[in-house]
Batch of 3 targets.
Target 1
Amino acid sequence: MQRVEEHRARYYGEDAPTISDAEYDALERELKDLEAEHPELVEPDSPTQVVGSARGETGFASVQHRERMMSLDNAFSIEEIEAWLARIGREAGDHPIVCEPKIDGLSISLTYEDGTLVRGVTRGDGTTGEDVTANVLTIPSIPRSLGGDHVPAVVEIRGEVFLPIEAFERLNEALLEEGKAPYANPRNTAAGSLRQKDPEVTAQRPLDVTTYALGALEWGDAEPHPSIGTQSGIYAVLAEWGMPVSAFAQALRGIGPIEGYLKDLEARRHDLVHEIDGVVLKVDDRAVQAELGSTSRAPRWAIAYKFPPEEVHTTLEDIRVDVGRTGRVTPYGVMTPVTVAGSTVTFATLHNKHEVKRKGVLIGDTVVLRKAGDVIPEIVGPVVAARTGAEREWEMPTACPSCGTALAEQKEGDKDLRCPNAQACPAQIVDRIAFIGSRGALDVEVLGEKAAAALVESGVLVNEAGLFELTEQDLRRVPLFTLESDSKKDGIERKAGDVSTNGLRMLDNLAAAREQPLWRVIVSLSIRHVGPTASRALATAFESMDAVRAASEEDLAAVEGVGPVIAESVRQWFEVDWHVEIVDRWAAAGVRMADERDASIERTLEGLTVVATGSLEGFTRDSVKEAIISRGGKAASSVSKNTDFVVVGANAGSKAAKAESLGVPMLDEAAFERLLAQGPGAVADGAADG
Ligand code: IVH
């Protein structure tokens, strides 16, 4: 119980937490279960019985709330939501339940008397909070007086004070520049800002508020508002008074729509201006709310659904290095496997030795691991307070772990160290071959990391030059691609040692890959700095490998989307004999080395830059680019002032928002097809609703 209490104080206060929110939730749950089994042990001041943090020796005046400020019970799965609905007798789909974002800020109670803001009080222990009126008055979105025709004599308006994520990031950048310690997260920062002794400091923090509940309410002589009978009505009333309310609140009926809402908001959680850690569900009908009542700490008519954690703690067991296809040596963390945002994570890149230093992580540290947004896990930093003294510093190796060659910076001042032995370093060769098989390159199914390693280890391939010369005979020498015992499949008998179905599939796929467009062949060469965008630009401009090879550095640099760095890299690449041999042997094996321009495609997008975002029905990510480029347009990946059109598909995120803020015309899929067919004239006006 003491541990829960300590972490609770850190959570609600401005001291950085030493455990993650998810660990706190688990700890609290454990205590709850224990108390449920042994009710005789429950103490009145147990964290499960009280609301918020009880400590408050901070110099702010204590103020008693007219009506208690409640906390919320948590649910961590859809089943727990269903159980809650059943518990309160609302599982039938005919009772509206209001769903809204659970804002990760700190709760505040704003008291208005005769329409005038008289007090702002933190939650405190739920009964008594701290008077932070002077600081609340610096928050611009909180009105000094209530508007509308129904202004009560007294009302306590409850909501959440937060620091927008962008403001938080800016503040931390500034602190780092001044050599000061950054804040742990926006919530702690908001708490620290609201409890500043000097309101002028608070005023410099762009705090904001969203309101979502009423405490005490006395209409006095005023006419009670007719909409006050439902939760959704309360939001309309709050808005009428001039209070900020959530734009995302929705009254839904039945578990299906509710589950849809939870999933949708979770997918979009990073598109909101503030952090959210879940969804709050509330019975809409306030008469039913009153009937259901509350426990000592939380209402029965509401529940908080917590998203799976995006930030967790785990142990950094080791730091190792990986040698990539361009020889770059990248340190990465090996961690005790941990679930974060729905998947198990064991490895996370640490980029380079400077990043390891900057993050200050030691082997053995408890680290904060984050999976922000979509996919890539990131080690945020160590939990210094959890160190035992047994941690040790990591040192960057000086020799390549794969071939032993001394590592070096390619240019002075480079952040990365590289293995210069591109021709013979096994790790680099394996990675290059696997890369050729990847979707962004020649897309050869079966040819992944494992197959590439097997081909090199068996000595069948010395490097990628022989890839398209592979025969069934060759694969018999690769254990991964041969049958261990006799088999009969689909009526065909095969003997041990024969090439497996998988091996045969790879050969078929390699044969098909010879027909891939030129840009994919260029990508597959692993020329430094030459990714899909530069490759496409080169293929469009030169139309054949021979022309790229013959082009001067100047010619190359003149291509839109290429530039001097890429031009130099391409030029140097073709000056190396074993590189040229790769191209020659691939060509001899039938790999396509030229694109014929399809004369039937009109160049309707000449000079236009188009960004596509979200998913479209008739296009894949690649085919949408293909469609733009083949018509002479530029397919860009980020929206800027120079973007001519943004094509917006389903579930588009921040790019659509950026386009809107920059006033870049947005096209739906139908309008995009008109643009492709007829050029910009066809979508000149009314682009957005086209
Ligand atoms: S309603 C009587 N709605 O979450 C119900 N709370 O973990 C009172 N919170 O104490 C709370 N977003 O500080 C409600 N949309 C929302 C919320 C919200 C964030 C906070 C609030 C509450 C805590 C419980």
Target 2
Amino acid sequence: MTGLSGSGKTTIGIALENELHKNGLLTQILDGDIIREGINKELGFSDDDRKENIRRIAEVTKLFVNCGIITICCFVSPTEEIRNLAKTIIGEKDFVEVFVNASLEVCEQRDVKGLYAKARKGEIKDFTGINAPYQAPLHPAIEIKTNELNVEESVKLILDHLKLNN
Ligand code: ADP
């Protein structure tokens, strides 16, 4: 899942995981905040570090996918180049690009973690949407407009795409 901070990736990821569990499916969520505190804790937000962040996540994802585990990746992944890198590593047939789309205004209003306020004050540099670019995906497999849909409806779009709704 790609989208601005606060667009809804983690919220949808957790709700999606709950639904997949009801279908008896194995899942693993990989989330930016957690990964950046753990295996990628030395990485920052420069272009090179963002690329390395996603490269490692994609390699880890491939290992999970090889075990038959549906891996839900919640990362801003702000450029076409970075997302293509992930797709290449994971393999096209196992990669579903979900664009969690909420406008910058909506995300900033939500400001779930207070990061937009900090970025506006100049306390965070390279913050996507404020002082670092976000390239919206051109052809996502799924686009979820989280200022129009609630979480349940958002999850349903993904389940429908995966043909997992009874
Ligand atoms: P991200 O992981 O993209 O940074 P979060 O999931 O942490 O975003 O935060 C998204 C916020 O938006 C949450 O407070 C969530 O309750 C809210 N929200 C409102 N509508 C939706 C929706 N349809 N899907 C997901 N989140 C939503």
Target 3
Amino acid sequence: MSKLTDATHDPRLRSWVESANDGATDFPIQNLPYGRFRRAGSDEPWRIGVAIGDQVLDLRRAREQSPWGGDVLPLLEPLAAGDLNAFMALGAPAWGRVRAALSAALAEDSMQAPFLELCLLPQPACEMALPCRIGDYTDFYSGIHHATTIGKLFRPDNPLLPNYKWLPIGYHGRASSIGLSGAVRRPQGQTMAPGAPAPVFGPCAKLDYELEVGAFVGRANALGEPVSMDAAEEALFGLVLLNDWSARDLQAWEYQPLGPFLAKNFATSISPWIVTMAALAPFRRPFTRPEGDPQPLPYLDGDFNRRAGAIDMVLEAWLQTAAMRAAGQPALRLSRSNLTDAYWTWAQMLAHHASNGCNLQAGDLLGSGTLSGADEGGRGSLMELSANGRQPLALARGEQRSFLQDGDTLTLRAYCQQPGAVRIGLGDVSGTIVG
Ligand code: CA
């Protein structure tokens, strides 16, 4: 995949921001993710920044304080104005020029360092907001191991439905309840106990998380105009972590015949920094299908997708209960899986979404679906880890979990690493359940 990479991925590249050169940081100079922030506790306008080490480069100030090339200056305008959607709408060539300029500006020997030093803010001093306006949100179901494990709970002999290997399954989610890390209120809803004469209304008793990755659409397509696989690749702006909080007991009663509704739309959490597709170039992998599985139909197939459609990214879920926190005990890792566990690539999901002429817009969010691994250590939800509550998970000091309890903090993390490339990460997203 070497032709995907350029000077901005060079593993020898170091930054004058010293913390960016720490091998453990998620945000080395090879990453350069975008987020929206302001000084914590202030009522300043939100602005766009780039995470670099443990700092944020304020692009509004950077646009004013530092000299930039004439070709880059107009591209910085939407970023300086705090409008990431407008920047996303400019398309991949513009994203690439700004990435190259930011990389050069933050590199060790940059002449811009004395100017840009004045435009840094430590990350702990920043308050984050959603990175852009999310017009629409669609959640897919591309984690085949998750789909198989869940399917087995209900259809042991036939876990995957006949359409699964032919098209990316998805449903339209709700954009208004997407947020960042913080408290997640346990939803109330209607549930029907097995054998009960009537449903009851009350607090969800089977609150779960789903370990997912989200993709932001950059380039829009007009209504009625499908997107080719190559154009789909170019339309993708970047990735975040996504937790699709799920009320399993509400879901079981309400989902037939139209699919998820109130069991899903009470909260969805994403990580605040969008790691661009460009930053992920060193970690692209061929898209492959297991022997005997159908090859995708032509509109979901392409040379680039076969060569590099997949992304090698480690995904983890961590749990810290209130009792663990009180005892000073660190979070426990519940699972580790990989984005290559997805059965469909991002380009396939986007191309399929637009294949009927549906218009996607800059800032639309696509969820991957729960990404579980093939083995037991990779189960990306409590529904899988506890076999829908039949086998509670044993924690330290006699605690156990079938589903999330009030006070539980669930954190998702993701990173990419391989020999010959600098490790980059997505940061994390964390939610604490409140009653
Ligand atoms: Ca989901």
